[in-house]
Amino acid sequence: MIRIAPSVLSADFAFLAAEAEDVKRAGADLLHFDVMDGEFVPNISMGFPVLKSLRKATDLFLDVHLMVDRPLRYVERFCDAGADLVSVHVEADMAENIAEALSRIRAKGRKAGLVIKPKTPAEAVLPYLDAVDLVLVMTVEPGFGGQSFMPDMLDKVRAIRGWITERALDCALEVDGGVDAVTAPRCIEAGADVLVAGSAVFGKADRAAAIAGIRGIG
Ligand code: DX5
Ligand code: ZN
Q1: Residues marked as catalytic
Q2: N or C: which end of the chain has fewer CB within 10 A?
Q3: How far is the CA of 36 from the centre of ligand 2 (A)?
Q4: Neighbour-count burial of 69, counting CB atoms closer than 10 A to its CB (0-12 exposed, 13-18 middle, 19+ buried)
Q5: Residues lining ligand 1, judged by CB closer than 6 Å?
């Protein structure tokens, strides 16, 4: 099953509750929440208080993507603030601390995800594959919405899908960045089953049509 995760980074923050409700009605399967610290990426977005408020406003699954340096410091607080899944970047700390962050997320009863940036090889996820519920392959450089999809990332999606199948793992495979009705079919064909889309959903007046188009039923 293909799941669509609109990224609230492209929503109107003054009306976040209404925006969440709108994409839920339009068929969103989960909501993607981008946290940027101004260190790991050259941008600052939102954090605990916004997530806490959004948690009260929606029952959609909250997929929290931490673009944060040394995320071990914060993962438990994001779980407490209402995340259903927290994903951390493999590049954001040394291996030992990334493994510890993933295990703390699971200890909180939430799902754990691992993210790789465009320049990081697919193999970087291998040591963690048994410890994650989701792998996220960035299809743009993290930091900003509205960038162009990087087709070279599809080979990494294919490789990771191969390992998940080979090991019969219960692990979702997500793509994030530049996903729209044109690039989505290529991601699905390569093996992605969760598609994040910011501007291609929130940037459109008809969100139901936008989500159907990305899902490939538009
Ligand atoms: C980028 C974020 C994305 C962003 C995607 O760093 O991780 O989730 O919101 O935006 P679009 O879909 O517009 O590329
Ligand atoms: Zn994201």
Answers
A1: 34, 176
A2: N
A3: 9
A4: middle
A5: 7, 9-10, 32, 34, 65, 140, 142-147, 176-179, 196-200
